[in-house]
Structures are given as structure tokens and as C-alpha cells.
Amino acid sequence: MLVKSSHISVSILFVAVLVSTTASAMMTGGFGQVLEPNPEAEEVLAQVKGEVENKSGKSYATFELVSFSKQTVAGTNFLFKVKVDRDEYIHVKAHRPLPHTKNPPELMELQPGKKLEDQLKP
């Protein structure tokens, strides 16, 4: 009986470690890893550029997506790092609603005065 008991204990420990590791890696509801620009992200950012300029009170000749992160919610939240001048960056948080709503992406938050090395933080 001692052999069976220790076998069960080891199995339970293994499952507990597996579940713990998987849960921490998934971070349900959180922003994912930082990604390189892609057409999907560039399109969403382009659609909120006017709102960004209105909120900042500036017109940006340079508006270049550097990196981004996504969060799946009822739609998708995007967190963008955008180059707006030689050494000036902004962080832009935008929400793209689910397609069936037919609503365009909207600006949620603007973080001015960022540098290239500043991490994207929601």
C-alpha cells in the first residue's frame, strides 16, 4: 500500500505543477507578448491616428508603429509604441470592437513623452 500511496502523491504533485505552469503562462485576459508591426496592427493604428492627434493637440508628420501588444476581450485591445519624431515616442491604447458591431476602432488612452526603451504597459 505504501508504494501505491507514494505513486499517487507523485502523480498529484505532477498535475499540480503542470496546471500551475500552464495557468501562469497563459495570463487569461492580459496583454500578450510584444510583437513586431504587422498589417492588422498598422490598420488599427491608422484608424485612430486622427483621435490621437485631436487628443494630443499635435499633427504628426511621422507616425510609425514600432511594436505592439494585444489583449482579447469583447473585441481586441491594442497597445502600440509609435515613433512620432526623431527621439520621441508615444504609447497608444486602442480598442477594436467585434466585427459584427461594424464599429471602427477607438482611442482608449494616450501616453505621450515616451522613449524607445520604455516598455509597453497598460
Model description:
The chain has helices spanning about 1-25, 40-55; strands at about 65-75, 75-85, 90-95, 105-115. The chain has about 120 residues and is α+β, with helices and mostly antiparallel strands. Strands 1-2-3-4 form a 4-stranded antiparallel beta sheet. A hairpin with a 1-residue loop joins strand 1 (about 65-75) and strand 2. It is globular, with a radius of gyration of 21 Å.
Number of strands: 4
Q: How would you state the average pLDDT, rounded?
A: 84
- Percentage of residues assigned to helices: 25-40%
Class per helix and strand makeup: alpha+beta
Strand content: 25-35%
Poorly predicted tracts of residues: 9-27
Q: Strand order, main sheet: write it out.
A: 1-2-3-4
Please tally the helical runs, counting DSSP H or I stretches of 4 or more residues. Answer: 2
Which secondary structure elements does this structure contain, and how are they paired or packed?
Blueprint: H1 2-26, H2 39-56, E1 64-73, E2 75-85, E3 88-96, E4 106-114
Antiparallel strand pairs: 1-2, 2-3, 3-4
